[in-house]
Design goal:
Length: 191
């Protein structure tokens, strides 16, 4: 998708629809690795694309690809949601949004969440990483972004992203328990 098209997703429905279809699967995967509630996953996915529509005019192709930009938005949306849930100030808004998801959508999200169960176990091991190391590892190893796109999403230099990624990979190998060979194998493939 070109930067011209990305800048139009906030005002031209066809441009938004193309952008959404291109990226919805990867964003749903990103979110499903972080939450285990299909209603919340649907709400957060919608919030990511709404934020993308509202900020499309600020997209700058020189700072990374549209995918990297969108993953940066998704990270912010997930972080904001975690803060909201910690304060419990937005419970009514999330509950009201759940009525918009039909049974077929819930089943698909439930399947995706089940498929990402092992990833959530890896996230438990990743809790030992610093926030900076964890962020770059998630974007590169789990979400498939290049180091340059991850750096753009995190608003850091690519050199810093590479250093953080190296430290994160080493720390993950050190932290993963030998008693969980399936997780060690899965994390080695992801890393």
């Amino acid at each position: 998708m070109t930067s011209v098209t990305v800048s139009r997703i906030g005002t031209v429905w066809d441009a938004f629809e193309e952008f959404y279809r291109e990226h919805v699967g990867s964003i749903q995967g990103f979110i499903a690795r972080r939450v285990d509630d299909p209603h919340l996953a649907a709400d957060l996915t919608a919030e990511v694309f709404l934020a993308a529509m509202n900020s499309a005019h600020r997209y700058r192709p020189g700072k990374g690809t549209s995918a990297g930009w969108l993953f940066g938005i998704a990270r912010n949306v997930v972080a904001n949601d975690r803060r909201r849930r910690a304060r419990a100030a937005q419970i009514d808004r999330r509950i009201s949004g759940r009525a918009l998801v039909d049974a077929e959508d819930l089943a698909a999200l439930d399947d995706r969440i089940d498929a990402e169960a092992q990833s959530r176990q890896l996230y438990a091991a990743m809790d030992r990483l610093s926030d900076a190391e964890r962020a770059v590892l998630e974007l590169v190893a789990l979400d498939g972004l290049s180091v340059a796109d991850a750096a753009a999403a995190l608003r850091i230099r690519p050199t810093a992203a590479r250093k953080r990624l190296h430290r994160a990979r080493k720390n993950m190998r050190d932290h993963l328990a030998p008693s969980a060979p399936a997780l060690v194998a899965a994390s080695t493939e992801a890393l």
